[in-house]
């Protein structure tokens, strides 16, 4: 019996020795992984840091440590996403697409987390993009202001020409009554005045039509840029990138809303009855594109369920709305070419 107790005691002591060694080795592994993860995070190698942190989470022995590791994993993911967004923003800047640069850098940690390796570059690029976008918006506003001023000038000229014709006619009638001018001379003078009126009206009509077509062409260009944002957003959705997809959709919707507002003002104030169907189609194209952006935006909320009915339905609705709007835009471009 005593021999049996001695053997059991030896086994217990040996197991305790092995357990202590295990915890020492595990502590060393955790320390090494923490050091590697921190060094990679500081150097900007966020993907490597994320791998080390994932390994660390599997090795961390305590719940408190797991919470700390989860927080670091979240930070590494955010910084990795910021690095991807900055890369896209650089490409967009090289292509001169400053609206997209601004939209991209407004998302994620690229311009908000000072520990991001390229934080200063992201801030500088965002400031440059904001300045460029402001310049483009000011240019568009200036062009529209010029359209309005020219329309007012044309109206004034037309009224002056009509007043001149009225005055001339009255003077001729008075002259005939007072001096009993010959009928032949009177007819000649009236013909000259009528011919001048016809020429003036034709020139005014041509100028009005040219300004009208240029304004529609400008709005079509804005819609076209917005459609490209939708297409880029679809690519991001297909890749499962919800943040950049929403940013692109918001940028496109802002353009569609702007065109819708300005087209409605054109329809009410500066469109002749003969061309109101075309301007109505332009307004419809902008409205349907807003609907397409909303459908794609709804699909983003089901981005983790791409095989589900909701995601498929919203994507299908968005693509159908986009196609319908593009058809209207193509018809309007053909209409502009037919009148030039």
Walk me through the structure.
The chain contains 9 helices and no strands. The protein is mostly helical. The radius of gyration is 36 Å and the shape is elongated. The protein starts with a helix and ends with a helix.
Features:
340 residues, mainly alpha, 9 helices, elongated
Structural class: mainly alpha
Element string (H = helix, E = strand) = HHHHHHHHH
Number of helices: 9
Helix content: over 70%
Strand content: under 5%
The number of strands is 0
pLDDT < 50 stretches: 4-9, 11-23
Largest sheet: none
Ends: how far apart? Answer: 114 Å
Oligomer: single chain
Characterize the overall form: elongated
Average pLDDT over all residues = 83
**Rg measurement, Å:** 36 Å
Q: What order do the helices and strands come in, and which of them pair?
A:
Layout: H1 2-43, H2 46-59, H3 63-94, H4 98-105, H5 119-179, H6 183-238, H7 242-269, H8 276-300, H9 309-339
Quick structural overview:
This protein is an all-alpha fold and 340 residues long. The chain has helices at 2-43, 46-59, 63-94, 98-105, 119-179, 183-238, 242-269, 276-300, 309-339.
